[in-house]
Amino acid sequence: MNADRSASRRDQQIAALAAIAIGIQILEAAIPGPIPGVKPGLANIVTLVTLLTLGWRAAVAVTLLRVVGSSLLLGTLLSPAFWLSLTGALAALAALALLAPFAPRHVGATGLAIAAAMAHVTGQFLLAWLVIIPHPGLPLLLPPLWLTALIAGATTGILTAHVLSDPRIQRHIRHARPPGPA
Amino acid sequence: MRIPGLRWGDAVIAATGAGLVVTAFILAWNPDAGSEGRSLVITQAGEPARREPLEGPRELRLQGPAGTTRVDIETGRARCAESPGTQNICEGAGWLSTRGDMAISLPNRLTLRVEGAEPAWDSIHY
Question: Which residues lie within the region annotated Disordered (chain B) (predicted)?
């Protein structure tokens, strides 16, 4: 009974975080960027907050819900934009999985966000280059993409660090922590 | 501005990322790398494209529907020296030396294009 209740509470938290992430992603899609294909990736803040409060599995769940949910609302489900979004998200999660054991003792949210952002564009680039448009000139796009990922990752990382240190969030984090060793 | 929760690992990741960006820019955007023309690609309507190395000096005579187009080839460059077009558009393209350079003769329905060691990109679409 008690385990059931904590599981459903956890589901509710994941659903709420995914809803916030979908909202951020939709808002971000509505804002025209200076360069097509470049956006700050503010929804990654939610993934990072989830990872650092609810743990690794919740972060995967929130991210996959965000990708599928936002593509349903934007009408891009199963289109190239969806596959690019999914590949980027999975690559970012892979980078976070590698670094998660070092957080928060040796790596903070800023480093995690930079690594995730760079993995995100790298994954998207590989999908675009190998599958969607196998053009030999495409690698020339990689350096500026990495540069924007570095800047965007640092920005979202700093924002995540501030979100996590906010006392109002901190209160939720204590409540949100699953029972057992943290 | 103070960033909460900063650890030494953040600096390592940021430095690695910055190094990756700088290296990628140097490798990919080095203006000298592969910009020189290596061969001249000749496409003519109704014929398969042919590729001539940019070594010379020599002269090619290409027969087309409107007459003969004369192409001069020297080491690293080529030009359309004489073509039947009345507006001299083909000749007006001048020496073609950088990859991507082109000359076109509409009356003879042919294009001359310089290619480098790596194909150049002429446009990017999203």
Answer: 45-67
| Burial (CB count within 10 angstroms: exposed 0-12, middle 13-18, buried 19+), residue B75 | exposed
Interface mutation vs chain A, best among B12, B21, B26, most A CBs within 10 Å: B21
A103: containing domain:
2-176
Q: How far is B36 from chain A (nearest CA, A)?
A: 16
User: What does the pLDDT look like over A109-152, one tens digit per residue?
Assistant: 999 999 999 999 999 999 988 887 776 667 878 899 999 999 99
Q: What is the DSSP string of A117-156?
A: HHHHHHHHHHHIIIII---TTGGGGHHHHHHHHHHHHHHH
Contact assignment for A140 to B28 by CB distance below 8 Å? yes
Number of domains, chain A: 1
What chain B holds in terms of domains, given with CATH numbers, is 39-115 (2.60.320.10)
Q: Is residue A182 part of a domain?
A: no
Cβ pair A143:B25 closer than 8 A: yes
